[in-house]
Amino acid sequence: MTEIRTAYTHVRLIDGTGSDPIDDATVVVNGDLITYAGPAAGAIGLLEGSTTVDLGGRTLLPGLIDCHVHLAYQDASKLLLNNLDVNQSLAAFEVAARAQLTLDAGVTSVRDLGGLDAGFRMAQERGLLRAPRLQVAVRLMSHTGGHADFRWPTGIDLHGDHPLSAAEIVDSEQEARVGARRLIRDGADVIKLCATGGVSSPSDTPDDEGLTVGEIAAIAEEVARHGGRAIAAHAQGAAGIRNAVRGGVTSIEHGYLIDDEGIDLMLERGTFLVPTLSTFVGYHDRRHLLPIAAYEAKLALEERTFERISEAVRRGVRVAMGTDAAISVHGTNLTELSQLVSVGMDPMAAIQAGTLNAATLLGVADRVGSIEAGKLADLVVCAGDPLSDIGLLADPSNVVLVVQGGEVVKRLI
After folding, report:
1. 108 contact partners, CB below 8 Å, separation of at least 6
2. Topology (CATH) of 5-62+369-411
3. Which of 76, 149, 237, 241 has the fewest CB atoms nearer than 10 Å to its CB?
4. Is the dihedral of CA 373, 100, 382, 356 positive or negative?
5. Per CATH, is 64-333 categorized as 3.20.20.240?
6. Model confidence pLDDT, tens digit, residues 351-394
7. pLDDT tens per residue, range 321-335
């Protein structure tokens, strides 16, 4: 079958690498791959036989990558209930709807950090599910009484052995190894563990420590024995962040109360920070979805979080974009870029956090994350210039074209 060649012309190109934009650029796509990206003058010989799409000076960026979502859940209340009130068949269709919203927002790849099984990834790969490319953690590793343990003081267990459970409870280094093996067996692309409590935990707080350094190191060693995978640590309090980095995780998710020692450790080891600052956007309007204690805990965190994340950014910790969608609102993922700018990143750096940096964290920078010849054609067109107003990308109506692997999946022009 002859591959279709498409030339996107008259664009302002932001290629995701942090390089200066190219005005009046052309990007040529052959099948699912980019074959040229650069000044229009260099593409003249490539246009013959191509379908030309004139983008009228709009901005072309790589497909964005959200490194922290929970597509299995609509909002915080569903996460707490673990979807116990929803039939599994209905839950699957709801995931599909949320995945489409995410794709329409300009996010062409995501890392789901708890709630989706590996079948969703396979469905997307086989063309059965219109969704961003997926990496899945399947379940969260936590200790008894930790962030992923939803047995309430009343004795009611909202996770337990339910087939939709997102909990993997471990309480020793050996159990941590076995838990990692179970997750690898069940198709996890990334291991998610809880190094601290959290805002929504029934039994602990963001300052409580979760898995120990030894347990985290055992997980890292076990993962390395089986071909290697990224390890993402839910970590909000300072002590748990330090434990996670010392144990060998790849990324700190949230990192809200990181201290100077934690920043030192992350810089020393090259650990990524995924700040998920979108969870603070409009949460007052969603307070009815949270238990009172969770809302009050979040309120108490807000000011200190922005201070500490700003310091991590100032000192040069590597940042990748993640939203914690479900806690934040699905389909508004690129609001996170404005949040990153609010903590000191310039718009280009924020875009890079959602493109090449995110692809590097996910281990797929050889295929996606920038607009370069030989990479998959994941492209997003924005009406307007996000370098002048990064907030443009927060509104999905400004995302007027989305291309995933060469296929147009959203078009408003």
Report:
1. 63, 64, 65, 132, 133, 368, 378, 380, 402, 404
2. Urease, subunit C; domain 1 (2.30.40)
3. 149
4. negative
5. no
6. 999 999 999 999 999 999 999 999 999 999 999 999 999 999 99
7. 999 999 999 999 999
